[in-house]
Design goal:
heterodimer; B: eight-stranded antiparallel beta sheet; globular
């Protein structure tokens, strides 16, 4: 089970080597990285933004920034996937906050069923299957953390809300929200380790 | 900077998980980021949380993006590389083109009129920075949600600055050494910023340009300086430039932050 989540570290060539090639101007290496992570980035963008066009823009912008900033990656400070997802997540948060400043209906309909209309463009069937299994592992891990902790993770990470905004929305003290965020991440880490995840797979 | 300024936070343990999640406001993020630069213990704690956070994207169901996304991405890269190759630009990366040789400046250096001198300054800066700036401008303005990309930016910059209808605003320095001007036309959305004296940003920090109206910040673009701290930006605001109250350049520690930090470098009242 741990292998599902750590498979990125077993890829050949390693992500760090691929990124080093990208930093040398090798666009074929960017294709490799794109094919490894674009699915995840797109899924994250759809989940957070609820709009296909915005999600597509976000995928393109994420990997454009990977291309432009590949030389700035410091392999001592984290994994390549972490860096790529961080770029995507920040772009999504920025879009969500921009929408809150100037509310515009960007959803495809009121109920946001954007996923129903998605065409399945599976190119890497094995990769998509692995992603699905990986997702199940994480969902089972999430079920083992308390509901109120899951809630703050959902609002913070997928909803793009700050801890202050979460406190206002839930009418909870800010200290309570901060504590729940800490406990949620600690509990999730603990559960994943219990499920056979190796500590080095969770290391930055 | 509010009470959570980086100068008053010893070890912001209560903010570190939120920082890893991207769930702090701009002031808090700036403060924590500044603290992490000097505190390996807190950095290790953040890295520990980040290792878990980086798994969260897998919770969302993955979907293959449409093929046109990949095609557009690599077409964009190919266009950038083609332009750089055609104009013999310096290698991609942090390196910046050196100052142009004298002839580009000297064509205009003999002019005595103030407008010609200004144009010489503009032209000299543009020629010096044209190649590295063109792709930076393209990158900065390439996002669909940013003010519209301006094709042929250097040529249009020159034309805009020298237009008789263009007026200027002096940018007040909030950081030692920085100074600049904004060029605008009332009733129109286009504007030019020209700034000198910006220090080089350390890794993880960036300059960002903002407009403000009714206390609402509008991000314009990320600002990248040359090695001598110069910047020129040509951009189109979402609305007429004089409908905004203020323009500013700040230092941000968060990529694509939606709220400007309190670290203002230059600013000016517009209306």
């Amino acid at each position: 089970m741990a292998q599902l989540l750590s498979s990125a570290t077993q890829r050949e060539p390693p992500d760090e080597d691929v990124l080093a090639q990208i930093a040398q101007g090798d666009s074929a290496a960017l294709v490799t990285l794109y094919e490894r992570y674009a699915r995840v980035v797109y899924g994250l963008a759809l989940r957070m933004l609820g709009n296909r066009e915005l999600a597509e823009d976000l995928v393109q912008e994420t990997f454009w920034r990977v291309w432009r900033r590949s030389s700035t990656f410091n392999r001592e400070r984290g994994r390549v996937a972490q860096w790529v997802f961080g770029i995507a997540h920040n772009l999504a948060i920025d879009e969500l906050r921009r929408q809150r400043l100037r509310p515009v209906s960007v959803y495809e309909d009121d109920a946001r069923p954007v996923l129903q209309a998605l065409e399945d463009e599976k190119v890497d069937v094995a990769g998509a299957a692995l992603d699905g299994e990986r997702r199940q592992v994480l969902l089972r891990a999430l079920e083992r953390i308390p509901r109120e902790q899951r809630e703050v993770i959902e609002l913070a990470y997928f909803g793009g809300l700050s801890q202050r905004e979460i406190a206002e929305r839930l009418d909870n003290p800010i200290g309570t929200v901060k504590t729940r965020v800490r406990l949620a991440l600690q509990k999730l880490r603990s559960v994943l380790l219990d499920q056979g995840f190796q500590p080095e797979d969770l290391s930055g | 900077m509010n009470d959570h300024s980086h100068s008053t936070i010893d070890h912001p343990h209560d903010l570190l998980p939120g920082f890893a999640l991207g769930a702090l406001d701009a002031n808090e993020t700036f403060g924590v980021a500044a603290h992490l630069d000097a505190c390996p213990g807190c950095r290790d704690e953040v890295d520990s949380f980040r290792a878990t956070v980086c798994l969260l994207p897998y919770i969302a169901a993955t979907h293959e993006p449409p093929q046109h996304v990949k095609q557009q991405l690599f077409a964009r890269i190919a266009a950038l590389e083609s332009h750089a190759h055609h104009h013999a630009a310096p290698p991609r990366g942090p390196a910046v083109a050196p100052r142009a040789a004298a002839p580009a400046w000297s064509r205009w250096a003999g002019a005595v009129a103030a407008a010609s001198l200004l144009l010489a300054l503009v032209l000299g800066m543009v020629v010096v920075n044209m190649q590295s700036r063109l792709d930076d401008l393209t990158a900065q303005l390439g996002r669909s949600n940013q003010p519209g990309a301006v094709a042929g930016a250097p040529q249009q910059l020159i034309a805009f600055v020298s237009d008789p209808a263009t007026v200027t605003r002096s940018l007040d320095a909030r950081q030692n050494g920085a100074h600049g001007r904004m060029f605008m036309q009332p009733g129109h959305s286009r504007a030019v910023l020209m700034i000198n004296g910006l220090g080089q940003m350390p890794a993880g920090q960036q300059y960002r340009c903002w407009l403000a109206k009714a206390n609402q910040p509008v991000p314009v673009c990320t600002v990248t300086t040359t090695t001598d701290g110069a910047v020129e930006i040509l951009f189109d605001a979402p609305a007429a430039i004089d409908s905004y109250e203020q323009i500013m350049v700040t230092i941000e520690s968060v990529e694509d932050s939606a709220q400007p930090s309190d670290a203002v470098v230059v600013e000016a009242a517009i209306s």
